[in-house]
Specification:
single chain, 242 residues, alpha/beta, Rossmann fold, nine-stranded mixed β-sheet, two-stranded antiparallel sheet, 8 helices, globular, binds S-adenosylmethionine
Length: 242
Amino acid sequence: MGLEEIINSIDQEPYYKEKEGVLYCTDCMDILPQIPKESVDLVIFDPPWSYDSYKQFSKQNIKYSVLNDRDIFFCLRKVFDILKKTKHIYFFTSNNRLNKDLPLFSQTGFRYHMILVLLYKGIGLGYGYRHEFLPVVFGSKQGTYTTKEHSISNIFSPDNFNTLEKSEYHMSIMIKQSTNANDIILDPFIGSGTTAVASKKLGRQWIGIEISQKYCDIAVRRLKKVRFGEDLRSSDITKWLK
Ligand SMILES: C[S@@+](CC[C@H](N)C(=O)[O-])C[C@H]1O[C@@H](n2cnc3c(N)ncnc32)[C@H](O)[C@@H]1O
């Protein structure tokens, strides 16, 4: 099933659309149930860190986007259905959430493979066990996993990390390890659009959902600056891309 067919099955006007990608500016819990089963090749899942206290500011008013454990379970269950068999998911969690998120992850049916560690630096981190990393749960819909490049470690060194926008470099590694050119990547909490930007540069198609219009606008601005497949032409990464 192609991207166009997926878009046609969703009863909601895209906020932004280009040939190889689409962004919905709304609650992902409304969109996910409409995406056909087994239609995407990779899921990047990066929900707000503090599920119960997340605040979103809209133009008109203050809006609260509250995701509790049941919502996260619902979203994980939906992306499980949407993902093709044997394909991968990267679930960005946090040290505070890991003990809750791992059981949720397994209960939805995903197969747990490992934790990827994204190292980061910040004032005061690293002392008295203050964590200096972000855990990312790596799993698949079924079976064992294979990645493209065996020399890549599951510990990723720091790269301009901050609390919302994820590193395009880290995202590119995950995308390259788990997909082929033109595959479709879904990110239901796409924030400022890092997954879409990395996917586009790497010649992959993408579906993004984001509840905050402010972040949708940032994502669109970023996307307009990149060309589909532009990194496919850059010599340093082509060696293990296809
Ligand atoms: C941790 S951030 C994602 C950051 C993103 N990976 C990036 O690199 O910019 C989580 C995002 O989820 C969005 N969000 C929260 N609740 C949502 C919902 N119900 N549906 C869709 N997006 C939601 C937030 O507005 C926030 O931008």
